[in-house]
Structure prediction request, 316 residues.
Amino acid sequence: MFGNFTTDSIIADIKRRAMIPTSDKTFATEDFLAFINSELKIGIVPYVLNLHEEYYVYPDVVALEASKSNYAIPYRAIGGKLRDLFFQDTNGNLFEMSRIPADDKAMYQQTSLNSNYIYYYLEGNSVVLVPEVGTTATGNLVFSYFIRPNDLVDESRVAIITAISTSALLGTTTYTVDEVPTGFSTSITLDLLQAKPGHKIRKYDVTATNVNAVNKTITFDTDDIDDETEVGDHISFSGECIIPQCPTDLHTVLTQRAAARCLEALGDTQGLTNANSKLQEMELKSVALIDNRVEGSVQKVVNNRGLLRSGRRGRW
Prediction:
């Protein structure tokens, strides 16, 4: 569908590229999956992020809590780092936040949290707001980060949505699926995944309110899900998927990388050399497919840190 690979088709393509017979028992399915997931995270993801075209960006809105100044960076953030961080007031307006060195936090304790310029520093895997949040804090923190792609798993571990029904009265949304995977229950967390190109994580770590294996239905509180979820999308265990979460046009590049890993493991030096040569060609040509995502519009560059603009914004 849409030219993208699922777990079974990507493993089949690896076997073709590496000339591994179907009957060969050298590699189990788990071995192929380990190669694929490794190459996705050490090869494809850095390759995509280097283009700076906003792939993998995911937003999280976290409400400020009274007397709490320390907020954890979302654990699924690649490298534990943020794309950006904003303060959102009660009217929904966003204000840029400025990162300061931890050594300078004392200098910023005289500012007000109600001002439009909020400061923070990093401490471990958390952001710490300065000045400290008081007892009447309002508003939200809007985290923007690059989300880590899920691991590919056997297709039996993922449910495919075949129908959707929503109850406004109960505030629930029920998904009818092709099969309810063994282990799905209301005591674990699940991910909602886009199946079409984009392959984004719609919502992660969501808990179902009801799982019915007989009727093949999974029910969630409507407020917990993405209202853009559609028929054909997937429900998986948290952190898992069956379609590589990278641009569809790079799926063949991913299979080529995994095939090269197989040839390396087999000690096929000549085959590895040929595979790496082809991989280099594929990566070079694929840049034109995923870079410069809006060719007809030049991105506007604003010098927010310039002297004139800083003066207009009331530099501290």
Helices lie at 7-18, 29-49, 251-266, 269-290, 307-312. The first strand starts at residue 57 and ends at 63.
